[in-house]
Description:
The protein has helices spanning 12-24, 35-45, 63-73, 87-96, 108-126, 159-170, 178-186, 196-207; strands at 3-8, 27-32, 51-55, 78-82, 100-103, 133-136, 139-142, 147-150, 153-155, 218-221, 225-228. The protein is of the alpha/beta class.
Amino acid sequence: MMGKILIVDDENEIADLLEFYLNNEGYGVIIANTGEDAIHVVENSSDNIDLALLDIMLPDIDGFTVLKTIRENSFFPVIMVTARIEDIDKIKGLTIGADDYITKPFNPLEVVARVKAQLRRTKSYNKTQELEFIDINGLHIELASHKVSINEKEIDLTPLEYDILLYLAKNKGRIISSEELFTNIWNERYLGNNNTVMAHIARLREKMSEDARNPKFIKTVWGVGYIIE
């Protein structure tokens, strides 16, 4: 089996459709039709889950609440599946810890492709253990535990935020374009008007208590990309 996917959706037809396509690709599936069911699964079986497809609109509690609970217990990727397309919802989800978004109605093959991309990213970075840690001017990254601290104060990052920071840190002194960052972290083709990288960098800086105008660690090279010096 290639991995275990948690599907959280109260619409049985959608859940069954996703299960069918994911099963065909060799993935195991757990289905939860309510937020409470999803939280129960996460709290009792999180070690067996590799990724979650999480609907925002659920009959009891919303997907954002479920996502918060997931992030308190686990670090597996979460793709939000929603009929709501407002930017505020996307920003809220990314802030809490979502890794990607799919909007209904969707092509199930696209969902499978997004799942594969997230799992490839996670697998790739889990293999990156040639160093025990990275230290850059008070920024400390533990590669085995994925713990990040600044001046010995630990900061809480989502898996995606950690991957972005690690990629920049491992390429210390080199300017990384948004295209390179997106291609290597999301494992998808970069579109020129894609502001996903910018949004995640902004959130990462906020968690690192960076001055947006004069950041100490992640610096912007306007028109080119980002660099940790």
